[in-house]
Write a structure and sequence with these properties.
Helix content: 55-70%
GO molecular function: DNA binding; sigma factor activity
Distance between the termini: 51 Å
Organism: Bailinhaonella thermotolerans
Number of strands: 0
Strand content: under 5%
Family: Belongs to the sigma-70 factor family. ECF subfamily.
Number of helices: 20
CATH architecture of one domain: Alpha Horseshoe
CATH topology of one domain: Serine Threonine Protein Phosphatase 5, Tetratricopeptide repeat
Radius of gyration: 23 Å
CATH superfamily of one domain: Tetratricopeptide repeat domain
Order of helices and strands: HHHHHHHHHHHHHHHHHHHH
Mean pLDDT: 86
Structural class: mainly alpha
Protein name: RNA polymerase sigma factor
Keywords: Sigma factor, Transcription, Transcription regulation
Low-confidence stretches: none
Oligomer: single chain
Shape: globular
Largest sheet: none
């Protein structure tokens, strides 16, 4: 095996196995730092050894075993005299395994563990995405619209607080789940989004491994909390988005917008399941249970996927849903997406005025400039539209999106 093949195998294993290795070690050793560092050492060992020895038949098992040995070596170096018995149990496997509790999936258990209420919400989500979600620091920083250095500091502070407060790695009980689920849903949503429009260098435009894993873990979360409306809403949102995956990228690798997609290529089974979940949540809202953020986003997607053609889209209903979402979550990105619906109902000039008010908040976000570019194009302002497209292309991290924006810019007179 040549070095290039080995490197590709390590990269693939990192994408597929990182979170599983970390989750297994954290459960065994009860320490997130040890788990992460030992996993990193195991992957470094793979980089050195796989070119010469070949890729093992089960890369995940090899990495888990190697990481376990690295963790034990660290414990041997750092253990005090009164820790010898515990160390021996770790080495020889005599310690009884920690019970799985109410969560039977290693990865989901670690997500609930990292989303500890003692940490600020943004710290919980950033730490969990790094430890479990398989996302790199640059990918997470783009998701939060912050600089990588700021994101690194946020993760470092979260880990330091875990140590300072002596927050243990502990299997969450059933009573722990409701106060942690909001952070868990935020993690799963961001993992799904990174798969939906991958931004990592060298990654394809869509990472199905991430979208599939996010959906799997959200299904497990719903089984744990079947009465939680936001869990059902997030699952519906993911399903309705995933249903359009095969139609979202052309054969040439270019993003296909919702208006141009072949709706016959959408996954009818996923759409039917997503619509059923949305109807259940609408019935709950009618009974007096107000919907949350994910439920409203799912409802918006349900309107889009109900239309047989883009011209049949009920934009007034979409705008009403965005108004409801804005009252719940007055974030600039919500206002940006709302402006797209405004453009369809009131015209691009009205929408452009709303988008321009978001300049200070979203100047570093590629979708802000892409939206402005499209509105300026529709108004016939080609020079300004070209400048906006240039800025969007500069900021976009997804290859399919970059190809689409470049074509639209080059079509301007």
């Amino acid at each position: 095996m040549n070095d290039a093949d080995a490197r590709e195998a390590v990269t693939r294993a990192h994408r597929e196995e990182w979170a599983r290795v970390v989750a297994t070690l954290a459960r065994r050793f009860g320490d997130l730092d040890i788990a992460e560092e030992a996993a990193a050492e195991a992957f470094a060992a793979a980089v050195r050894r796989w070119p010469a020895d070949g890729v093992p038949p089960s890369p995940g098992a090899w990495l888990t075993t190697t990481a376990g040995r690295k963790a034990i070596d660290r414990l041997r170096r750092e253990s005090r005299r009164d820790d010898k018995h515990k160390e021996a149990q770790l080495v020889y496997g005599d310690a009884p395994p920690e019970p799985a509790g109410v969560i039977d999936d290693d990865r989901l258990r670690l997500i609930f563990t990292c989303c500890h209420p003692a940490l600020a919400m943004e710290a919980r989500v950033a730490l969990t995405l790094r430890m479990v979600g398989g996302l790199t620091v640059p990918e997470i920083a783009r998701a939060f619209l912050v600089r990588e250095t700021a994101l690194e500091r946020r993760i470092t502070r979260a880990k330091a607080k875990i140590k300072a407060a002596r927050i243990p790695y502990r299997v969450p009980s059933a009573e722990d789940l409701p106060e942690r689920v909001s952070g868990v849903l935020a993690v799963l949503y961001l993992v799904f989004n990174e798969g939906y429009l991958a931004t990592g260098p060298g990654a394809g435009p869509v990472r199905q491994d991430l979208t599939a894993e996010a959906i799997r873990l959200t299904r497990l979360t719903r089984a744990l909390l079947p009465d939680d409306g936001e869990v059902a809403g997030l699952l519906a949102l993911m399903l309705l988005t995933e249903a359009r995956r095969t139609a979202r990228v052309s054969a040439g690798g270019e993003l296909v917008t919702l208006a141009e997609q072949d709706r016959g290529a959408w996954d009818a089974a996923l759409i039917a399941e997503g619509h059923r979940l949305v109807r259940e949540r609408l019935a709950a809202a009618a009974a007096g249970t107000p919907p949350g953020r994910y439920q409203i986003l799912a409802a918006i997607n349900a309107v889009h996927t109900s239309a047989r053609d883009i011209r049949d889209t009920d934009w007034s209903q979409i705008l009403a849903l965005y108004d409801q979402l804005a009252r719940l979550d007055p974030a600039p990105i919500v206002a940006l997406n709302r402006a797209v619906a405004v453009a369809e109902l009131d015209g691009p000039q009205v929408a452009l005025a709303e988008v321009d008010r978001l300049q200070d908040s979203l100047a570093g976000y590629h979708a802000y400039h892409a939206t402005r570019a499209d509105l300026l194009r529709r108004l016939g302002l080609s020079r300004q539209a070209r400048a906006a497209y240039d800025r969007a292309i500069e900021l976009a991290g997804n290859t399919a999106e970059t190809a689409y924006l470049t074509r639209r810019r080059d079509q301007l007179r």
